[in-house]
Design the sequence.
């Protein structure tokens, strides 16, 4: 399957997706670690992709999303941001609202 | 800490980044005509990070160019202005965007 197709499939199959370096349990980069910690703190279930184990995604997602760095957080297929934006949203309480809304939509479907 | 800094300075680790902050500054200056601009080398915060301590920067920028944009759009504009530097000299970039007359957004990179 084409890598862009794989990205699109992942994003349509999972309401919340985090592309990161490492995994939530074993993050390999401080930015990915802080972003997954913020998500964990919301209690949200999310799908994570370890880009260090998928060089094709690592090379192509930045072009697809027009965003050069990792982590990248997506909710309902839309890029929410990287570490800075995610932490900002978490601190303002907005992230909690967004993931709750995404979870609600997912169960309603 | 002091000895670590000396070691890095000896290998050129810190010195190499001095012009990079200037390159970043020049590009952002040219693109956004900011009313406030800080470019900070944060490589020292990431020593031991898989040998990638260098290349970590923080940008604090205030410009009307960011008015009416979402946070993702604002960051994309900054990445766009830095172009090929992303991944070539810049390994990671923390971005704080402000609009003239308002407080810049706060990020907790501590």
Sequence:
């Amino acid at each position: 399957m084409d890598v862009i197709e794989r990205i699109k499939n992942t994003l349509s199959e999972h309401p919340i997706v985090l592309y990161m370096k490492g995994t939530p349990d074993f993050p390999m980069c401080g930015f990915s670690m802080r972003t997954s910690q913020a998500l964990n703190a919301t209690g949200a279930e999310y799908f994570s992709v370890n880009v260090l184990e998928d060089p094709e995604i690592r090379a192509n997602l930045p072009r697809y999303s027009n965003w050069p760095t990792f982590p990248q957080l997506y909710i309902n297929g839309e890029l929410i941001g990287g570490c800075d934006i995610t932490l900002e949203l978490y601190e303002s309480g907005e992230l909690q609202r967004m993931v709750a809304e995404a979870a609600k939509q997912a169960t309603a479907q | 800490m002091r000895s670590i800094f000396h070691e890095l300075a000896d290998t050129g680790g810190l010195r190499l980044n001095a012009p990079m902050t200037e390159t970043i500054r020049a590009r952002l200056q040219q693109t956004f005509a900011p009313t406030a601009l800080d470019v900070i080398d944060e490589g020292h915060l990431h020593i031991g990070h898989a040998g990638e301590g260098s290349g970590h920067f923080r940008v604090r920028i205030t410009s009307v160019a960011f008015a009416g944009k979402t946070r993702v759009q604002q960051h994309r504009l900054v990445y766009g202005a830095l172009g090929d530097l992303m991944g070539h000299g810049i390994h990671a970039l923390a971005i704080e965007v402000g609009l003239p007359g308002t407080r810049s957004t706060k990020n907790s990179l501590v």
Remarks:
- The longest strand of chain A covers residues 16-20.
- Chain A touches chain B at residues 28-31, 34, 66-69, 79-85, 87-88, 91 (CB under 8 Å).
- DSSP finds five helices and four strands in chain A.
- The radius of gyration of chain A is 13 Å.
